[in-house]
């Protein structure tokens, strides 16, 4: 059985993605313990990186890495051939409506997507927006007293609040939304490493791009996947089981964090309980 591979990401894009998600994971790993210092897992996470000073260094370094790769990403797209199909358009609204109708069983036709679905665009620009918010507020919180020389104290306090809430929102979006959409249902999804996606996924997820690619023959080198697929079926199954357990644990953790931050906000800003 010969399965075609379609080029999805260049090496440059894959490196950017790896730097971005690695810095994001490190930011979450070293950031939430500071928000919940009394929890047992917070102390364990801080100790796992070598103590509080190391936690601070890793958090700051990861923040700079995320800011740096985000700026590079913008410059990269400006200097390289821009892809305007990543921008939102009216077709995305139609696709969204059609997909909702399909999920509610009011239509038997699933929308046909091109290179990017409306969900992928939403995640992409959401990540960009989050990087801007987290980067700016993070820099203010890095040197709060220095920041108060240029901004009112209330502005710095609001930045602290935004930093926390954006961290929670981004973590939910990435650890639950993005991982579920792009990895859980497509396990193992290795396109972020290889840059290629299999023909079945291409035909199912991006039918319009698939049709265009088949016409222009924009495909990677074919690979014989039959023997490898049968040989690794148990490994893939076990890997998906482990992935599912970790995914569920992260979901529970994120729900708990969201609830805790929400209750803290209600007590502080609604009930005025210090």
Distance between the termini: 66 Å
Q: Give the DSSP E fraction (strand runs of 2 or more residues).
A: under 5%
Helical proportion, percent range: over 70%
List the uncertain runs.
222-231
Main sheet: strand order: 1-4
How many strands, what sense, and barrel or not for the largest sheet? 2 strands, antiparallel
Element order: H for helix, E for strand: EEHHHHHHHHEHHEHH
Tally of DSSP β-strands: 4
Radius of gyration: 22 Å
- How would the global form be characterised? globular
Structural class designation: mainly alpha
Mean pLDDT across every amino acid position:
84
Count of helical regions: 12
Mind explaining what this structure looks like?
The protein is mostly helical. Helix content is 74%, strand content 4%. It is built from 12 helices and 4 strands; from the N terminus they run ββααααααααβααβαα. The strands form 2 sheets. Strands 1-4 form a two-stranded antiparallel sheet. A two-stranded antiparallel ribbon has the order 2-3. α5 (118-142) packs antiparallel against α7. Residues 222-231 have low confidence and may be disordered.
Summarize the helices and strands and which ones pair or pack.
Elements: E1 2-3, E2 5-7, H1 11-35, H2 40-48, H3 52-79, H4 90-103, H5 118-142, H6 144-147, H7 153-184, H8 191-194, E3 196-198, H9 199-205, H10 207-216, E4 223-224, H11 226-231, H12 233-270
Antiparallel strand pairs: 1-4, 2-3
Helix pairs in contact: 1-2, 1-3, 3-5, 5-7, 7-12, 9-10
